Amino acid sequence: MKPLYLTVTDKHIRYSYEESDDKITVNKVYTINSAKSLGQNLDNFKTKIPNDFDVVVILNPIDVELRDTIVSCGNLPIDMGLTMENLLHIPTVGVHDVARLGLKQAVSTEIEHAGWHLEYYGSYSGKRQYGQESMQTIGNGYFGLRGSYVEAKASDDYYPGTYVAGVFDQLTTNINNRDIVNEDLVNLPNAQYMTFSIDDGDPFELSPDVIENVYRSLDMRTGVFTITMIVSLPNGKKIKVITKKVADMKNFHNYSLQYTVQPLNFSGEMKIFSEIDGSVTNSNVERYRDFDGKHLVVDKTQVDEDRALLLAHTKNSNVNIAVGTRIQSPNIDDAVLNSNRFQERISQSLSFHVVEGRSYTVEKTVSIYTSLETDSSLEFAVNDHAYHKNFADAVANSMRSWQKIWANEDIELTGDVTAQKLLRLNEFHATVSAQDHVNENLDASVGARGLHGEAYRGHIFWDELFVLPYYTMHYPNLTKALLMYRYNRLPAAKRYAEENGYKGAMYPWQSGMYGDEQSQSMHLNPITNSWDPDNSRKQRHVSLAIAYNIWNYYNMTLDDDFIKNYGLEMMLNIAKLWISMAEYDPETKTYSISNVMGPDEFHEGYPNAKESGLKNNAYTNIMTSWLFDKINYLLKKEPKDVVDENLKRADFTDDDLHAIDIIGHDLKLEFNDQNILGQFEGYFKLKDIDFDYYRRQYGDISRMDRILKSEGDSPDQYQLAKQADALMGLYNLREETFLDIMKEMGYPISDPNKFIKDNVNYYLQRTTHGSTLSRIVYSMLALKVNDKKLSWELFYQALTSDYYDIQGGTTAEGIHLGVMGATLNVVTSYFAGVDFRGEELTVDPNFPESWNALRFNLFFRGIHYYFTVTKDTVIVEADQDTHVQFKGEQVPLNANESKTINY
Question: Which pLDDT band holds residue 388 (cuts at 50, 70, 90)?
Fold first, then answer.
């Protein structure tokens, strides 16, 4: 073990280490440049030190109570432990912990802690605080509870949102003589509010001026979120406040709070306040605030001793909502409870005497019910609800549930403490967003921002494509429940197609409660603050993503009942859409699909064209051909009575059957003379763009569409892309499948390696990565051209994208669930190389140099597999006799016996 020792001051970082060869201690000093930010200084500091350390030891921590790695730097207290772990990806410990435990044990303890905790030190404001709330959201698939301070009410700095899956409402706002209808995932009544007062003073309100110290820690192993805060009031009184929150993973209507106060330098009278606030609005997203966001009508408030109940309903969707609380004070004698009911909220307080140095705890359990999942009276359901005995009981329940969850889905990584933490964070938020035993009771799917914020108004997009494979690997029944959300909206998709002059089912780009199109026709450009036309609804490939998810689920589970009753019917209806959109050109003897947009999103149409939409988007056409191929497979495989019944339900005629054979083989693609696949027809006629010029002008050019429009220009003029488009099929499909589809379409690739390399390089030069999904898809594509350095860089940017909020504040509005799911998929399917997209598992690792080992498990076709992958070995075990394909060779596996494969 080789330590790097740091002494950090406001002006210097003194560091020392021992030379390996001669055991001589090297002492050096890095002078902090006051003209640059701390982050810039640390990035520069990283270049000055060797890269062979195992651990960092902080020699001069200033705060041993909260954490042993807090120092003063740049005239601010900084947790240098978190900072150095993020910078170097190795454990960082404090000198006091080393003295207490010894270096080896201190490091082991920190590795364990860092891998399971998402923590923030210090008080923040604005979008940065909002983003941290998103990242520390707790929940259970039924609800999401943003990781705000409980003392907070909605403001520009704090947003204590609560969201229940599937609870949407539509409101109309008149702006500039235009009626704009928006459907929102509704922010429900805030029941997590708690605060205190001293000696009949006003209730405490959050302010950076009075927060002397604060540490917020999300323990992903147990699901418990803890805030430890030292408050110094203007009158000189100092108080320590510890807040704990936990969502019940089993009894999913519940969450529990524990609020502990400790007067540090006074005795006197105190009150603890609690509220259920039904006056809340949807205001998490600043650019939406001009729209009406008040979705709730409070119907009733009720108090019965330590219990409170608020009943409400949404204005237009008429979803009934009940929020109940129970307050307990386990270690406070003679507390006096007072309650006040107002038109839209209930306020309660506990009054008691406090003695300096003692701790006093108030516990609150909250239950939430809605009419979407509860058939009985909501008032009865809440009043009949069995609350936890105490907060410890709630935590014990959560720990038991998470123990089972992590045994099933944990990706264990050694060699990188930051990546380990963030992989678990992605898994944690995937579980917060959906759970199998919860979603079987809901008619809901996962939104692009989970249950964590209000961006995209909580709508469901094609992002399901990136997260459902993760669910299927671990919880196949969950994926089936989420696909049933789409099946239940098949009639709406048929109506949408008919309204646009098509047949079959056309699923909307943005879906909410009913399955009708929720994409706006106008989009607010935040650079110009003006309204631009929004044609994103023409991304009809969302229907192909749904078909892909159906097939992927079926391929991984062989669930014939699902295909028989739901899946095939959906796929046939989606196929009818593409049949009706395909037009035959007798001159070229090919079919074309027009009036669409690809995943790129920058290109909405052709330069100076009167109508929007593109022709022969490569991704759309390739995936349509793929869909037709899979339908033919199922029609041949399934029993005749099943096929006939599904053809009848989908109104799929003999002409349609003939069409999928003909159209699938003759859809048009475009290539240039270098054999580059055109993103769409006419792409190569567009102008090149000088990215360097725009980088000099704007710095961040990820959203070149907004930049160009602000200059009176249009991305439609140029060869550029927001994210992977023409090559997106290579993310969805195995390489051989992709090439087979190209051949069937009449475009055989004679040199696949050259084709893929040339195309990946071509589009990388034209992609701005305006979506976090772009980085993770191109990370995989870079592996295909053996550019491991680029793959690693793009992967790490994607992995840390929400953690560092690299898009300048978007994490404030909710996590990006799609990129989280895709990141997990790239780790297991590409870095570890375990590919589940065929009839058997194939293994072909591309293991990162900086990692030591990956351990994970997955379900595939009813068999549970356990993998350990390192730089040179794969250890695999299965619970049944089976086999895997390793680099093209079949490797037999005996049940419950591990097999080691060297490579």
Answer: confident
What's the rounded Cα separation, in Å, for the pair 36 and 13? 15
Note the pLDDT tens digit of each residue in 701-739: 999 998 998 899 999 999 999 999 999 999 999 999 999
Burial 328-367 (b: 16+ CB within 10 A, else e): bbeebeebeeebebeebbbbbbbbbebeeeeebbbbbbbb
Which ranges in 765-878 belong to alpha helices (H)?
772-784, 788-799, 817-826
Cα separation of 322 and 136, whole Å?
Answer: 25
Q: Write out the two tokens for 431.
A: 């579980």
Cα gap 760→785, rounded to integer Å: 8
Can you name the residues that pair with 511 across neighbouring β-strands?
A: 460
pLDDT tens digit sequence for 588-641: 999 999 999 999 999 999 998 989 999 999 999 999 999 999 999 999 999 999
Closest by CA to 451, choosing from 147, 125, 808, 798, is 147
Q: How far apart are CA 610 and CA 206, in angstroms?
A: 53
Q: Is 587 noted as a catalytic residue in this protein?
A: no
φ and ψ of 276, to 5 deg: -115, 115
Q: Do 592 and 614 meet the contact criterion of CB atoms below 8 Å apart?
A: no
181/178 Cα distance (integer angstroms): 10
Q: What burial class does residue 866 get, using C-beta atoms within 10 Å of its C-beta: 0-12 exposed, 13-18 middle, 19+ buried?
A: middle
DSSP string covering 588-649, please?
A: TTEEEE-SB--TT-S--B-TT-SSB-BS--HHHHHHHHHHHHHHHHHHHHS-HHHHHHHHHH
Q: Decide if 306 contacts 272 (C-beta within 8 A).
A: no
**Mean pLDDT score across all residues of the chain:** 95
Q: What is the 3-state secondary structure (H, E, C) of 140-191?
A: CCCEEECCCCCCCCCCCCCCCCEEECCCEEEEEEEECCEEEEEEEECCCCEC
Q: Helix 817-826 crosses helix 772-784 at what angle (to 10 degrees)?
A: 20
Strands 296-304 and 307-314: antiparallel
* pLDDT value at residue 74: 76
Positive or negative torsion for Cα 750, 754, 758, 764: positive
Separation CA 93–CA 57 (nearest Å): 5
What does the alpha-carbon distance between residue 532 and residue 32 come to, in Å, rounded to a whole number? 45
Q: Are 333 and 224 in contact (CB under 8 A)?
A: no
Distances in Å between the Cα of 502 and the Cα atoms of 321, 325, 573, 576, 655 are 38, 50, 11, 8, 16
* Candidate list 85, 427, 464, 601, residue with the active-site label: 601
pLDDT score of 24: 84
Q: Hey, what amino acid is at 635?
A: L
pLDDT of residue 533: 75
- How far is the C-alpha of 310 from the C-alpha of 636, rounded, in Å? 56
Sign of the torsion angle spanned by Cα atoms 109, 114, 117, 120 = positive
Q: Beta 254-263 vs 360-370: how paired, if at all? A: antiparallel
pLDDT at residue 87 greater than cutoff 90: yes
Nearest to 301 by CA among 320, 323, 282: 323
Given a cut of 70, is residue 374 above it in pLDDT?
Answer: yes
Residue 727 pLDDT: 96
**pLDDT confidence of 524, banded at 50, 70, 90?**
low
Single out the residue of 811, 747, 461, 780 nearest to residue 616, CA to CA: 747
Model-wide pTM > 0.90: yes
- Work out the burial of residue 191: count CB atoms within 10 Å of its CB; fewer than 13 is exposed, 13-18 middle, 19 or more buried: buried
pLDDT (0 to 100) of residue 315: 98
Q: CB of 682 within 8 A of CB of 669?
A: no
Mean pLDDT within 472-495: 98
User: Tokens 């790239």 appear where?
Assistant: 826
Q: How high is the pLDDT of residue 584?
A: 97
What is the rounded CA–CA span in Å between residue 476 and residue 611? 42
Q: Which amino acid is at 230?
A: I
Which DSSP category does 828 fall into?
I
Q: What is the pLDDT of residue 212?
A: 93
